[in-house]
Amino acid sequence: MARVTMLALLAASLCFAQGQKDLDEANTPHRSAAIWKMSTGELNTVVADPEAGDFEKAKACQRLGVVGDASSVPGVAALLSNRTLSHYARTALETIPGPAADTALREALARLDGDLLVGVVNSIGRRKDPLALDALAKLRRSDDAEIRSAAEAAIGRIRSP
User: Fold this and answer.
1) Does the predicted TM-score (pTM) go above 0.85?
2) Whether residue 14 has pLDDT greater than 80
3) What is the 3-state secondary structure (H, E, C) of the chain?
């Protein structure tokens, strides 16, 4: 009898948790499905909106990684210094075509440090931006071993065929 009661309580708990998740998602102004259907301009607005939450901005960055263009770069680049959203921003910038994304990543080298800087260096390496080689060469002399290692790896990626 106790086993049946425990199973019933567990089932009720799971139903409540799912209901709460549905309620939370229903109260999210830009749910995942809605964000995925937005135009590039609408996504850019979400990324730049100070009222939008991290969830919405993260999902918008993910989508901009697929449909983003040069108009998306300023808003996405502004998130590079955000500890929560930097990874999403870098992922978007890595795939947005054109030189604006390269420029934004290079400019971020001067204003970031620690793991955020390492992430940007890695993104530059993935984009194989030859204009970043001088800045990366300077980072090879950093006191931070992770930054030195990331810079070395990025240079190797850029210089490889």
Assistant:
1) no
2) no
3) CHHHHHHHHHHHHHHHHHHHHHHHHHCCCCCHHHHHCCCHHHHHHHHHCCCCCHHHHHHHHHHHHHHCCHHHHHHHHCCCCCCCCHHHHHHHHHHCCCHHHHHHHHHHCCCCCHHHHHHHHHHHHHHCCHHHHHHHHHHCCCCCHHHHHHHHHHHHHHHCC
